[in-house]
Description:
By secondary structure, chain A is an alpha+beta fold. Chain A has helices at residues 7-13, 29-37, 41-46; strands spanning 2-5, 17-19, 54-57, 60-62, 73-77. Chain A has a five-stranded mixed β-sheet with strand order 2-1-5-3-4. The longest helix of chain C is centred in the C-terminal third of the chain and has 18 residues, at 104-121. The B-C interface holds B 4, 6-8, 56, 59-61, 75, 77-83 and C 38, 52-55, 57-59, 61-62, 83, 94-95, 115, 118-127, 138-141, 145.
Amino acid sequence: MNIRYFAWVRERVGVEEEAIELPSSVVTVADLIGHLKTIDDNHAFAFEDEETIRVALDQMHVEADAELGDAKEAAFFPPMTGG
Amino acid sequence: MNIRYFAWVRERVGVEEEAIELPSSVVTVADLIGHLKTIDDNHAFAFEDEETIRVALDQMHVEADAELGDAKEAAFFPPMTGG
Amino acid sequence: MVVEATVRVQAEDFSAQSEMDTLTAGRRDVGALVSFTGLCRDEAGTLAALELEHYPGMAEAELDRIASDALKRWPLTGLTVVHRYGKIRPGEQIVLVVAASAHRRAAFEAADFLMDFLKTRAPFWKKEHFVSGKAETWVAAKADDDADAERWIAS
Amino acid sequence: MVVEATVRVQAEDFSAQSEMDTLTAGRRDVGALVSFTGLCRDEAGTLAALELEHYPGMAEAELDRIASDALKRWPLTGLTVVHRYGKIRPGEQIVLVVAASAHRRAAFEAADFLMDFLKTRAPFWKKEHFVSGKAETWVAAKADDDADAERWIAS
């Protein structure tokens, strides 16, 4: 799955984008976050306060309990501050 | 006193503006309207539905019970439709 | 810092952009600019023109009063109101309000408030000229407009 | 008559007037045009620039979704949203919304609604660069903005 990061989540992880093989145990967004946190300290730091982080699957906002289904891209970012 | 008329009130009265000597019995705007209605049929027609007509004294909106005081100009017009 | 509103009543057309530019020129404290432009509709092809009558002197004075109320009510950095009179054809501009503020809510509310009170209190009257040639008629005031203005009294 | 919103996400500056002109060009059924322009403030001289990051693709898609909601909710004749990204300096423009309708209430509400949801749902993030040279910081989302967006859910 393609994973993208934006704003301070991107800065903490240290990459904009990465392709990750997911174990079959990863079903929901929450599972995905749990998996990403195990990658290294940077990922763990980025998701430290995981309640704050917003998620999009294939460019649509979703909640943490959403199933990944056949989404090709997941994106993680802080609350939006545009406008 | 200088009296001005606008929109359909003006069209009914037939003049834009007129100077009128007021008897001392005319104290309020309502008195003034009563007096103007006696001038001729055009004035009577203009003030036929006097509840509808708005009044300004020296270019400030007032109600019918307002006293004329030392106002120099009274204006009568329909509800506003600008904007 | 005292903010003065700009109020103009004129026969000539206006430019929303140039009024907006005036409110932001040389400033770096304006975060939000809301403009309202009222245009003449052709009422499904039936209207040939609007003729706008006004009470010279009072029109400016009343717009000044409404603008001053808005400046007291919201923290604006600038406020401009332009209202035209005379014959205006479908597609042409009638009225402009521009409100500038540090924050968007103040700019939105002030422009909205100004239009509501302008409609019910500024001495302008519209007469409709029809394409069919039938007799011109004065536009009747709308109860909706009074209700819109009353929204601001409770709040 | 199906009305389509115009949504653009771009680094370049925009012209409010030219977007307004596009929504009224050749039409005689537009009675009200409301524009909102969001500008970069200098925060009392402390801010050197904002850096706007966005999620390409999703930014456009989300603005399209919000604009479609507005078109369903109000009888608009046109709706335009332009949001910039990249480095923006104090006094420069960030975002533009223009709503056109036969009537003023629809145009005001649609523009207001669009800004509220754009702030809380469109994937843009602002980083502040300071005049003092102190470390850049990401702007925190405001609880006020969430509250503003929630106003539209009850009504």
